[in-house]
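Subgroup meeting minutes
Present: P.N., E.W., G.H.
Scribe: E.W.

1. P.N. recapped why we're keeping a running log of single-chain structure predictions: easier to compare across weeks, and new members can see raw inputs and outputs side by side.
2. G.H. added today's entry (157 aa).
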Amino acid sequence: MANRIKNTPKNKGDQIFKWTSIILAFLGAADAVNLLVLKLTQWKVICGGVHACLTVNNSVYSEIYGIPVSAFGILAYLVIAGIGLLESRWKLAGEYGPLAIFGVSLAGVAFSAYLTYIEFFVLHAVCPYCLASAIIITVIFIIAIIRLIRQFNSQEE
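Output recorded in log:
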């Protein structure tokens, strides 16, 4: 791509996609905070009586080098929200924000797919909060693809 990507969002549709991603990112961060609190406190009330939450959140797959996976989720969601909020305020974020959100959400979808596989086929326990996070990051990823396609198409005009 020799040409620089045009600054987005330019129209109302782009604004809707951008703000939907930001809102979903904050929802995802809240979900991940809930999972982190559960991991650190083992407070069963947070699970709403779903035993599978504790099973998944206490498994060996719930940490990477001693850091809870939910902490990485919080970071990813806040990065996505931050980039989205900066798109209209910082030229670099405006030009490359959709691509950066695509990259972060792609990594999130890949990791969520791995963790969902672990839940279903290894642990045989499904945490609804983990599934909610997987759905949220997948929707953000789909929106990121749509935004990149729209951005590319507007560049060709």
